[in-house]
Amino acid sequence: MTSTSTSSPALTFTHKELTKIPGKPTNTTLKKLKKEVYANARAIPSTRGGGNHGHLGIVMDDAAYLTLAGQAFDLPAHPGPAPVHQANPTAAQIAENNRVYNATLDELKLATNVENAIKNQIVEAVDSLYFDDLEDADFGFANVTIPTMLTHLQDTYGKLTRAELEANRASIATAWNVDMPIQQLWKNLKEVQRVALQGGEEIANKTVIELTVAMFQKTGVFTDACNAWRRKPEANKTMANFKTHFNEENEDRLEKLTAAQAGYHGANSVTPLNGNARPTSDTALAATTTGTSHVIANDGTKMYYCWTHGLGLNENHTSPTCKNKAEGHKDDATVSNMQGGSTTLMTGRRRGQRE
Q1: pLDDT in tens, 79-88
Q2: H or E segment at 296?
Q3: Structure pTM?
């Protein structure tokens, strides 16, 4: 198969390279592959097939394309080795015949270049081991259409087993963590439902919501928000309302976390452990999480987190070592996962002081 550069102005693909599939293709990786192939084909304009979908008709199954566009993607027949003229043609007729001939050749050449370039991309993205049944010993994939390649991959490796469907459903329990944007959760849940539907086992929104609430409770981040959600009327428990509810709760959580990490509420009055006066500039208030029970400000000050009392300077006062725990205290709460704990700053205390 001849390699065609995608850097040519005529072949400015959306994806210069398709996302590589490591090892055996799966339903999810093949979905992404097909989506990228479709995007690349659509990016190259064509007047065929309705003129609204570029060269999508080259990479898409004929019946599926007809359903999408309302008409078939039919390329013109090759016009032969030279233009055909009428008997005793005029100069104008000769010029028009030549123009149509050249335009047809250009159109067919472009379509061939698009097809060959995308074929190359697919072969580069998927290990050749998974194309063995299609490759000809002499001609490689020259006579294999892109729809045939995609159908082969889907039928051979994209079908979902019982174990995969069960694992897909179970993945909701780990679809999100506190370090992940909550928008990624909604994307993950959408993919879970897509995979289930393709496997013939639709997961209803109500079920997804219930499983996600259970996941939230396990993290301990949205305890109050989960309780508030349960109290809503059943008619209001839609997926759209669910996303809105927890988007707002997450924004509130992040604001509190940022404020706690920045040492808000008079953090300038705190004396660092080294005994030096704390800088009063705004930049000195910024802090970064370490993934443990403390944060480190820009001036090097360490502040330690306790679920009951919040942030303080006593390294011996953290969630698991607290001596005066409130009801519901969580020993495993950290500054990066407060689990609904205090966001108060314990100001003015030094190491060794009781809190």
Answers
A1: 999 999 999 9
A2: strand 294-297
A3: 0.58
